[in-house]
Amino acid sequence: MRLSPRRDMSLIDLLFGRALPTWMERAERVAAATGIAIFGLDALSSAAYGPEAALTIMIPLGAASSSYIVPISASIIILLGIVYFSYLQTIAAYPGGGGSYTVSSENLGRYPGLLAAAALMIDYILTVAVGISAGVGALVSAVPSLLPHTLLLCLGILALITLVNLRGIREAGIVFMIPTYVFIFSLLGVLGFGVIKALASGGHPMPVEAPPPPAVHAAAMVSAWLILQAFASGCTAMTGVEAVSNGVRAFGEPTVRTAQRTLTVIIGILVLMLAGIAYLSHAYRITATPPGEKGYQSVLSLIVAAVAGRGVFYYITIGAVLVVLALSANTAFADFPRLCRAVSQDGFLPNGFSIRGRRLVYTQGVYVLAFVAGLLLVVFRGVTDRLIPLYAVGAFLAFTLSQAGMVNHWRKHKEPGAARSMLINGLGAIATGATVIVVLVAKFVEGAWITALLIPALLVMMLAVRRHFDRIEAELQCSHPLDLTGLHAPLVVVPVQTWGKSTEKALRFALTVSKDIEAVHVALENEKSSVEQLWKSFVEAPLTAQGLPVPRLVTLKSPFRHVISPIVDYVLQVAGRNDGRRIAVIVPELVEHHWYHYLLHDNRAELLKALLLLRGDQRIVIITVPWYLRA
Amino acid sequence: MRLSPRRDMSLIDLLFGRALPTWMERAERVAAATGIAIFGLDALSSAAYGPEAALTIMIPLGAASSSYIVPISASIIILLGIVYFSYLQTIAAYPGGGGSYTVSSENLGRYPGLLAAAALMIDYILTVAVGISAGVGALVSAVPSLLPHTLLLCLGILALITLVNLRGIREAGIVFMIPTYVFIFSLLGVLGFGVIKALASGGHPMPVEAPPPPAVHAAAMVSAWLILQAFASGCTAMTGVEAVSNGVRAFGEPTVRTAQRTLTVIIGILVLMLAGIAYLSHAYRITATPPGEKGYQSVLSLIVAAVAGRGVFYYITIGAVLVVLALSANTAFADFPRLCRAVSQDGFLPNGFSIRGRRLVYTQGVYVLAFVAGLLLVVFRGVTDRLIPLYAVGAFLAFTLSQAGMVNHWRKHKEPGAARSMLINGLGAIATGATVIVVLVAKFVEGAWITALLIPALLVMMLAVRRHFDRIEAELQCSHPLDLTGLHAPLVVVPVQTWGKSTEKALRFALTVSKDIEAVHVALENEKSSVEQLWKSFVEAPLTAQGLPVPRLVTLKSPFRHVISPIVDYVLQVAGRNDGRRIAVIVPELVEHHWYHYLLHDNRAELLKALLLLRGDQRIVIITVPWYLRA
Fold first, then answer.
1. How high is the ipTM of this complex?
2. B397, B148 in Cβ contact below 8 A?
3. Strand pairing category for A491-495 and A517-523
4. Using an 8 Å Cβ cutoff, are B86 and B384 in contact?
5. How far apart are the CA of B334 and the nearest CA of chain A, in angstroms?
6. Class (C level, CATH) for A491-628
7. Which 3 state secondary structure label does DSSP give A476?
8. Contact pairs from chain A to chain B, CB under 8 Å
9. What global pTM score does this model have?
């Protein structure tokens, strides 16, 4: 079993693609058209669950809910506009990638930066979970018999996306382009067709397929609290718009222009979708159905069926919604590992997150994201509506910190137009900040408390990691040249249980590195062992004949039949007796050719090494002298 | 976390008892009274399932089955007598312990010996499974509502016995003495009382509590095949009688006399029990009930209820049956590890089996036995009747090989009375050998095929293990004195990623063991690293000033971003270039104080060591220079 990069091909290659060298990194850049698919999936697909989340909250209002969706969507679109202009400026100011973490850290300081990072991590994880669960929601709307298998479908899709992402970003872009464009054109087509029909009928079109009447006939009166809750849920429609600004570096030249153009297209399409859905819900009097229960249908499914009927077009559109929603998770898979890498390079996360895998992807981030999102799906049984309350807090907190950071950025960079830019970002910060509070209050009991706990917990964890690394760095720091005092040969201890070739090899190695050698032997039974009998003739005699120093043979008693711990105890004693002297313990180790052969041995060498490392100290060095058995 | 024998007390001590030194071994000896409990439990408790197994086979005969049990039991008692006299001789001839493995190996040769060992191992495992399942069978007879929890009860009892046995044999004897004697006296009491009542009533006593009428009214005609099957099942009543001869060494002085007396008492009691059960089944017309089904009652439960009614005495007797049956597994727990140890000392099983644990018990054997018996219980859902067909083959095969070995023994030792002894053992060999064939044929389809496959499989495995050890021994064998030619200092390779105290320490150690040192550095980004910049001033300058040899700094390129494999590749190259030279690779390693801190690192040191061992060769030595972080 050799692990060289040339030998482990075949299956792994097929699954993950061939390993890529570092110089190929520049080639992994995207153009605007691919960029819309990669960085826009999350934002655009939000249209499929945002309005529905708001309508679901208003189920108790009965038929009236379809009227309230229009003003709620209008406020969300206004908020979206503010955020759009804010991010256009962020992209321009941070062509190297202006994620909330970078912007907040640079302009607001370490703690707000880490707060933004924690918020974003939670946001990305939920993007994956909600995207997949909503996609499966679309699927079970079209094929109701699949409803009982919701969770299994969710986990299967998660596994698929994880695999695709482990292959790397460019191929991911190609995989996702086709369904994204099918989704955009078919959904915009349905919405446009519906709006024309509605306008032609004077605002009261006849649905091709009538939606089911609301299950509850106005069980509640409209209240400001309910509308606030609906708005808070609807804000999830805005998640994902920060993706472009995070990933500016991934765009082709001219980087900033391409990124801005991509963001403009994405936001434009999103606004059209949100407006269209709101108007048609109102015109066709469409209300939400109770999620996770029998008879559930997604709002998009109801709209498409009302506008175009349940024909081929319906299935194409819903198919695209399914694929795009499920794959929207890809935005998070592109960004989460990059974020973790940035945080890890600043020392706030384990090193592993900044190691690129064979395909230039930060593999560990992909694994963590897939694992935690999978956990959320399992806990919430794959039902979107249960995940929504956890969602918007992280996204809007990151928005707020990013905009606030930009305000400080313009304060420092007094370039032309800085005041105007500061105003725009300031407005963005206030609007999104207010939304954070609204969402947190409106959704606290339903699940926002989980996010509200997790974000500070992550923050504390990141600070602890950094503190640990700082301590290690301070301890290992060496600002002086190589110290050449006290370079004496080590005192060598060789455990000798039987006389054999591996023992001979260990002794021979000991003789090449030091003149002070002690052989230790653990006497297990109360009889003289063969080693003790042979020592004089086999070791002492030839060494004396050559005038070489003779190792002392020390026999240790072992009343408890341990072999390892008496040796470790002895080594510690020797270290204690020889103050300031380095002690090198030579451990002869058999190397087998098949792993299962290790089951036949007591693996004392491994145990001895582990125990020496555990109980040893700075002066004790462990030398492994392997003996390779013939195959 | 220190693993010294003085620190890990408390909970482990409480569970397993304090660690015992080797010299206490002699004290762990048993007298005849304790011996009956330890070595007799298996044999005596067989009375509780042997006759029942025969009666269960005869369920289709209806009420008539209770007549046929008398001649079947009579043949089993005769067989038992033959085996008894055979084993008396074995004990005398092998005061050091005359298990089938020892006797067969010494007198018949290696393969028959290993065959006996394999047969015995299977036998012991089944003793545990059957003992426990039959015990639980008694329990659910008395408390029918527990029937659905059969398997759980079985596994719980198995866990308990395992724990008791890990504490060591003498304490086990005390734990088991009380229930054994309660069992013997209460069961013999019931049987005696029943026989008197039956004789007094002219052979047709009135039951206090009438057994349920047989479920099937003579659904089958009696046939030789059915009687043969019943006999084969009934033979399980004889399992366990070899235990005393295996454990002779554990008896107090005079060893042989004590052991023989113990065996005599055990066999005497067993004969009384078998005869009593058979007679009373006939007198009270008791038949078996379908096992594992609702309404199941063990035959012993039916007899006790018929003789004494379901009063306090019933519950005491059944309670003792339960405890003794379940604990009969203890015989196997006393013998299986000893057998494995003997086989392992001959090199046919991994070393681990001959290492005595903290309580002088061969711990690994206990674990293996508990695991496999647990597996059997799970597979057969804890129902005795399903386990019985697997059982008798192993036991009787071991009997046969042991007796046949004794025949050869007497042929070699021509002492007075040898001819008579040979005759007795020959008779035993023929009788038990014939029984093996009967059991194998009668039970093949029901499960004996599993045993018939497992025994040769075990045999092959043991031979493979021995072959492996022989090969290693031949390879390591060194019959010449220490070779002192070619003792040159090694060429030392030191991986240097950054300049720090642990790197300095590694370099300093390198300087103490050799003058030929190469430092290797993996360049990850295409920029000059700080190590390369510092090397001249921090390493070369001070060494040159002192007139010491200067290590060469080698920079390795890594297009695939690997850090470990370029170093390993380089070390292999160096080894290739320096034919016959030893290469020592120094691996600096950080030692953390808490295991979870290792999650924060990429643990490259561990990986490097593992890969060097995997891909290295005889000339490559690994030196771990640890750096202990402050707590």
1. 0.71
2. no
3. parallel
4. no
5. 20
6. alpha beta
7. helix
8. 227
9. 0.70
